[in-house]
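Predict the 3D structure for this chain.
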Amino acid sequence: MATGMPADLRMVVADLDGTLLHDGETFEQRFLSHRSIDAVNRLHDAGVRFAVSTARPVSTAKVIIDRLPVDACVYLNGALIDFEPAHSSYDQLTGKNPVGDADLLKVGFSSERACAVCLMLLEEFPNMQVGIVMNDVRYTNFDVSMYWKTQTWQYTNFRDVPEGTADKIILFPQREQWGRLQQLIPDDFEVNISEGVMWMLMNPMANKQHSLYTLASRMHIPLSTIASFGDDLIDIAMLRESGWGVAVSNANPDVLRIADEVCPANNDDGVAQWIDAYLRRYR
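Done. Predicted structure below.
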């Protein structure tokens, strides 16, 4: 481990897929190891808060969150922030209870606007796989089960999506479409690309960097005392803004390049190894 590990650590923020979770043959088979659970529990017992920041929706992330002592959770890449995971129900997190709850923050855009953007993009790319994520339902023009087996979805022509606050638009473009697609994205959306495949169009304030600021402010924790862990391009800003940004060794090369430190890979419980080294040194 590097010698620059922060001695005054007050919070760890970790991505899930490719970082805290082990890989699996399918999305559903990715898993959290007992070693990681034990390490996070010991870290928390030592007085260091722990938060998760993931692109996953509630349906596939909460079952993982519930196994950890999590002080806050950022879902959907920043579109939903839960400040009290231990007390939040699935219904609260998916909009069946009022979103105005003081323990939740939703950062999105109207479903009407989302539909207009989807229809505009489909005029240019009629065969593109497009969808809107809202209240843990995916309204799509394709069979979602080809990517995720357990997520709730409905076919749509983007003229029958219910009114509400959408979390994000998802796209699966072909590589040769990227250049033209980038030109078509409206200025009121920010693009994040997950695992080099899925494009996510988000509210510009719905990202891991802004959610890190929000968590730090809400918890009264200086950014300089936060260590964050990630593996993908959407983690870069979070790692840069944290006091200590750590990439797992299996991370995207651009993430490895900007990290303050590289820990072992996700499949080797790299985050847990880092926590163990921190606790041995400082606690």
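DSSP finds ten helices and 16 strands in the chain.
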